[in-house]
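Why should sequence recovery work at all? Because a backbone constrains its sequence more than one might expect. Tight turns favour small or flexible residues, buried strands favour hydrophobic ones, and helices have their own preferences. The token representation captures these environments compactly. In the example below, the structure is given first.
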């Protein structure tokens, strides 16, 4: 179980890792934190929060698993516009091709 303190620290790590002056170590820590928060949101069946966590992970070029993508796409299908869905599928494609390199 993820405590409030862990969530707060993870959010701070993501903020630091996405800053322009972030070091490679900060980016790596942020990537790990983003995935941790995403997995937590998926595990707890969060909807909008899972989408936010997904966007954080994508921004950090994290290696996002299929279960997380599937959960977020299911959520988006229920609440997003067609354009938002197209963007999600495009992001998934970009992440998959980047990971294949």
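From this structural description, the recovered sequence reads:
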């Amino acid at each position: 179980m993820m405590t409030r303190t862990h969530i707060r620290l993870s959010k701070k790590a993501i903020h630091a890792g996405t800053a322009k002056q972030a070091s490679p170590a900060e980016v790596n820590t942020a990537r790990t934190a983003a995935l941790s928060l995403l997995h937590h949101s998926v595990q707890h069946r969060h909807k909008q929060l899972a989408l936010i966590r997904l966007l954080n992970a994508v921004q950090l070029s994290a290696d996002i698993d299929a279960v997380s993508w599937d959960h977020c796409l299911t959520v988006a299908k229920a609440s997003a516009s067609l354009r938002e869905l197209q963007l999600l599928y495009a992001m998934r494609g970009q992440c998959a091709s980047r990971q294949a390199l």
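A few observations help interpret the result. The chain has a mean pLDDT of 90.
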